[in-house]
Amino acid sequence: MKFKVGTLILAFVLLALFGCGEKPAGSQSSSRLLMGTLMTITLWSQEGETSRSAAAMQSAFGEMERIEKVMSSHLNTSAVGRINQAPRGQWHPLEEEVYHVLAESLRIAKLSQGAFEAGLWPLTNLWGFSREPPATAPPEMAKIESWRKGYPLGTAIQIRGETGGRQILLANEYVGLDLGAIAKGYAVDRALDHLAVLGFTNAIVNAGGNLGVNGSKGGTPWRIGIQHPRESQGVVAEVSLQKRMGLVTSGDYERFFMHEGKRYHHILDPQSGMPTANGVVSVTIQHPKAMTADALSTAAFVLGLDKGLELIRQEPGASALFILEDGRQVASGGFSYRWLGGGQ
Ligand code: FAD
Ligand code: MG
User: Fold this and answer.
1) Counting ligands in written order, which one lies closest to the CA of residue 114?
2) Which atom of ligand 1 is closest in space to residue 249's alpha carbon?
3) Which ligand approaches the C-alpha of residue 120 most closely?
4) Disulfide-capable partner of 319 in 2, 34, 145, 335 (CB 3.0 to 4.6 Å)?
């Protein structure tokens, strides 16, 4: 009888805690498909905050959806889509937000000596990694060759003007905006800002391997796994973070096809127009801004280990972990992680 009363009291306490829809302090996650990838937000919320945190996550997804509608090359109605349909060799009006992301794109393009290029839309279309259904064989090499000759590396995209009067010029028909290697990082930064304004400063926003972290998990660091490049469910390393930081990985496993025994993936070398082949299979970058980490991860991947490390050394606040085809892992100074082993 005594036991039954105790059980009743316990049930009552639990009902009081959960009955009104609130949970004790802890982490909560929510996911949504946006920008052609799975976005997941994880929040640490205090007791009594859980229904408010669910609303905050939906609101942050709304912000990322808004950014997709501005920055997607896949949408003819987006600001980027409209620029891609406009005549080349002429100045066109440019939205402030796109200017902001393009200014960072051009900075990283210069720093990486053209390994990162935001104007590859005609080339990425030729390869068809994000086509529906995705391509399963390489395009005709004559088409790649004509793109390579036509794309003016270094002068493909020009931007100018002051706030309220920004403009853009795309050099020729071989140039089209593709912010696929930077805009998810930007969206992650904006989602974290948005959550902080709503009072949630302990959060992770993960846009398909493009991650941003804020605060901690109730006082202990967030622990983030770095994906095994050859095992979709495997984790090769772990990073612990408890401050605002971007942690972004570019890998040859994200979008690829096998053709006649060869792997063709979506990270393209603007010099050759071909998927990068330099022995690197993934690069993870830490940088306080997820947008910059996103662009640097692609740039460092294209540059390869030695030049990639040199690039990271030039950018204050950046650090990198390279995973190579032969199973080695090489980290730059400042990249703190725990290797979980396995290799490839
Ligand atoms: P990253 O290394 O960060 O980026 C690689 C991508 O950037 C490539 O896929 C290519 O698009 C581009 N790229 C390749 N080489 C270079 C280079 N040297 N320099 C600069 N850029 C390069 N995918 C869909 O299938 N459907 C969609 O509707 C869709 N909408 C999107 C909307 C937005 C706003 C964004 C940002 C992405 C969208 N995507 C969509 C995904 C996109 O097409 C890329 O596949 C994705 O961004 C790859 O990101 P990543 O983090 O794996 O690799
Ligand atoms: Mg990137």
Assistant:
1) 1
2) 51
3) 1
4) 335
Ranges of CATH 3.10.520.10 domains, the chain: 7-71+184-339
pLDDT of 46 reads 84
Task: Look up the CATH architecture of domain 7-71+184-339.
Answer: Roll (3.10)
% of residues, the chain, pLDDT over 70:
93
* Ligand 1: nearest atom to the Cα of 80: 34
CB crowding 266-280: b at 16 or more within 10 Å, else e: bbbbbeebbbbeeeb
Residue to mutate, 34, 35, 232, ligand 1, most ligand atoms under 8 Å from C-beta: 35
Residue 162 CB neighbour total at 10 angstroms: 6
Q: How many residues does the chain have?
A: 344
Pick the CATH number of 79-170 from 3.40.1190.10, 3.20.20.70, 2.30.110.10, 1.10.3980.10: 1.10.3980.10
* pLDDT classification of 51: cutoffs 50, 70, 90: confident
Q: Are 283 and 308 in contact (CB under 8 A)?
A: yes
Where does CATH 1.10.3980.10 sit in the chain?
79-170
